[in-house]
Amino acid sequence: MLRHLPKDMGKLNSIENCSTKFLIPIFFIIIFIPSPAQALCIGPESCGILGGVFLSMLTVPICVIALILAIWPVTRRILQIFAILPGLMIIVTGYLMVIQGERFDLIFIPLIHMGIMFLMIYLGRLGS
Q: Got the DSSP string for 51-64?
């Protein structure tokens, strides 16, 4: 009544066990890494600063990669459209970090976004 199982079935189970062994630590890292970041957010001021820094870490590399569009004259006009992103980030980081966080020494972060925006607009208008 018992069927003979192929020899490859044992290999399949070992592969599944191997992937679970790697997947479980990744889940634990994802769950427990935000705990120190949550400890940094103890009030609206610190949460604003933390949010502004995280948004800047996300958008500045995107804007720098978008500057590649300045290489080709055809795509330079699109670069002016992408200049909206650092323009919005001037407002967001300015409010979160400078106004809400009451840290006027962090004014350089919105100014970095402003510099990227002006560079994108300048490079976008080069050929016109």
A: HHHHHHHHHHHHHH
pLDDT digits (tens, 9 = 90+) for 18-65: 677 777 888 777 776 655 556 667 888 888 888 888 888 888 888 888
Residues 6+ apart with CB under 8 A from 78: 69, 124
- In a 13 Å sphere around the CA of 95, the CA atoms on its Cβ side amount to 6
Count CB neighbours of 45 within 10 A. Answer: 15
Amino acid of residue 67 = L
| Structure-block tokens of residue 110 | 């919105």
> Within 13 Å and on the Cβ side, how many CA atoms surround 48?
18
Residues with Cβ < 8 Å from 103, sequence gap 6 or more? 45, 49, 97
Rg (CA), the chain: 24
HSE value, Cβ hemisphere, 13 Å, CA-based, for 109: 27
